[in-house]
Structures are given as structure tokens and as C-alpha cells.
Amino acid sequence: MNTKELIEIEDNYFINTFTRQPLVLDHGEGVKVTDIDGNEYIDMFAGIAVNALGHNHPKLVKAIQDQAEKLIHISSIYYNEPALIYAKKLVELTSFDRIFYANSGAEANEGAIKLAVKYTGKSEVISTVESFHGRTVMTLAATGHEHYHEPFKAILPKGFINVPYNDIEAIKEAITENTAAIIVEPIQGEGGVNVPDIGYLKEIEKICHEKDIVFIVDEVQTGFGRCGTLFAHELFDVKPDIMTMAKGIGGGVPMGGILATEKVASAFVPGDHGTTFGGGPLVCAAANAVLDTIEEDNLLDNVNEVGNYFIEELKKLDKEIIADVRGKGLMVGLELTKPGAEYVDKLREKGFLINCTADKVLRFVPPLIITKEDIDEFVKALDEIL
Predict the structure, then answer these.
(1) Given a cut of 90, is residue 102 above it in pLDDT?
(2) What is the mean pLDDT of residues 20-30?
(3) SS3 for 285?
């Protein structure tokens, strides 16, 4: 079937919840993907920061193949070796003590909020404007985008307070005796790659410790090397009570998780939370391969070197249409003075896949294996278009 015929299937049979790009991707290799018509693209979006190792990475593919020949799913009623090995690795690499496996970022955030409420016995959660925490009813309430709220206001739970990002005074003013948690992205993704002031997260940490409020960092988009450290909150020298994760964790397979300190994690007992698919052997085998490859191939070094190079090259463009260049590692935003959707289309026509968020911000979250040569190709094309 050709591209037009396949797209017509969606038009006729899918529930309409996505505005897609008009191409059908067929296969990929490294940082490149190819559509069914044979057109090749450099992938600067990586499935929304999911394909951390790019496409068809041999270590990831082998791990998935080997595990698929043994067990794919057994449910959470039984132990499985890949999940146990991964838990030990990740806990020992972080400042947390316990892990819970989920299937997505929204599920991880939902579980984290439930854990905070159970631990504190309180019911209010503070989040930030322009944040994105998921599309379940509870995580939608935590998400600080009014246009996402509007159609579902009648069913959104009470107790969620959205305050401006990077504004510590707004957080202080929002705290009440019923505040259970503060949830924040170390760097906002959907909101436009917004990097906070260096002391912002540290001050939240201090407030939470003083008032016994649970400090939750949402690392769904920023985790697993995306920003130059294994997790972005490390850039700001903080130790949260709970961290949520997903996207890059499995290199493309659907997986998420919660990490928590012993003190907070102990609030959950059997029956308080659960999952059918979370932490299955297949996804955990993939997650082990991703984590091992990040370490063995020194990908954090590549993220920092190429990421810094990318930001500096973007700054050299010096176009009147560019309002700002910002980001950390390979999570980079180029803010324009006008809506950016047309540039997504123009860059696709030149062989590059990107995304526009917050209306005017071109967001780049390429695979962690991207090279300076790939960046040079992209910046040249972007320069010509701008």
C-alpha cells in the first residue's frame, strides 16, 4: 500500500486524537529513519525523546530478541530476572531506595501522586503552569495547560494548584496545611524547553523538607542521559523524595517507573497500587540494554559534547526571527518570534524530523548517539529555511 492509502485507513478507522505528519515511517538505522516511499530523514525528535539509542541499535535489538524467545509477559504476580537486575542497577545509581514499574509517564506520575497522598494523608498537590504530566484524569489536573483542562473540567479532581514555573514565591504562597506534594519537571519539555534558575529546585527541596511535603520530580522527558546527566535533577544538586520516569527508559518499548526514598515508599502496602504489564521481562530486558549502553558507550560524554556544540551553532544563526536558544544536553529549544509549525514542514521536506511545542518553540530531542556531523547538516538546512 502507498502512503495515501495507508493514511486513508487512519482517516476512516482511527479515533481522531492526533495531528500527524504526512509520512509513513518504515525502518531506521542509527539517527536516520526511512518512510515507505524510500525518503530518508535525520530524526531530531526520537519519538519524543524515547529512542535514546536511535533506531535498530544492535545491543537493544539483541536484548529484545533474546528475551522474546524466553518470556514476554508473566504479570506482576511472579518474579522475573530482568526486572530484579534492573531495579538493583538503577537504585544503586541514584539517591533512591525503592522502585515501582509502570507502562508510561502518565501512569508513573499517577502512582507518584497516590504515593505522596498516602504518605502524608493530605490531598493538595502543587504543580506548575506550562507543565505536562500526562493525560489521565489526575495527571491532566496536574498538567498546567488550561486548554488541556477545558473539555474535562467537570471531572477533574480538586486539590491541584498550578503556579508559574521558576517562581519560588508563587510556590510558597500556594502551600497550605493540606499540601501533600510539589511536582515539577527539572526542565519543562512540552512547555517550551524551559530551564529554571539554578536555585529554584534547591529552594523547593528545602521547603519540602521543612514542611514534610513530598518533593516529586517528573523526569519522564529529561531522564536517561537526555540532559547530560543520568537524570536532570542532578544538574541542580537536589535529592527528591520521588522521581518518575518513562520515555527513554526502554529505548522505544513502552515502560515507565517510580523511584522513591525508603521513608516515602514505605507508605504503600500490597493492594495500594498495582499494574498488569509494568516491569515485564521483555521491557526490563530492553531497559537493561539501554542503561548498560549509556554507561559502556560513554553516551553522557557525547550528550554533553554534541549538545553544547549544537546550542552554540544555533546561537551563531543570529536571525531576527530567533528569540532564544536554550536547553541542556540534547534537549534543546529554539524559540521563534512567530509560530513555528511551518518550519516543521519545511525541515521535513529537507529531510529532518522535528517538533514545535508551545506554539513558537522548535524542540530538538535527537537520539543520544547523534554526531556533530549530523548537527552540521541540520543547522545548515535550518539556516537556509530561516
Answers:
(1) yes
(2) 97
(3) helix
CA distance 197 to 218: 17
Which residues sit opposite 231 in a β-bridge? none
Taking the C-alpha atoms of residue 123 and residue 19, their distance in angstroms, rounded to an integer, is 35
Quote the Cα angle for 125-48-261, to 5°: 40
Q: Are 32 and 378 in contact (CB under 8 A)?
A: no
For residue 319, pLDDT beyond 90: no
In the DSSP assignment, the letter for residue 94 is: S
Report residue 180: phi and psi, to 5°: -90, -40
The reported pLDDT for the residue numbered 318 is: 82
Task: Note the pLDDT tens digit of each residue in 197-239.
Answer: 999 999 999 999 999 999 999 999 999 999 999 999 999 999 9
Task: Give residue 260's pLDDT.
Answer: 98
Rounded-to-integer distance, Cα 256 and Cα 248, Å: 9
Cβ atoms of 76 and 103 closer than 8 Å: no
pLDDT at 216: 99
- How many alpha carbons lie under 13 Å from residue 279 in its C-beta half-sphere? 22
| 334/311 Cα distance (integer angstroms) | 9
Location of C-alpha cell 538503577: 90
Contacts for 17 with CB less than 8 Å, ≥ 6 apart: none
Kindly compute the dihedral angle of the four CA atoms of residues 260, 265, 270, 276, in this order, to the nearest 10 degrees.
-10
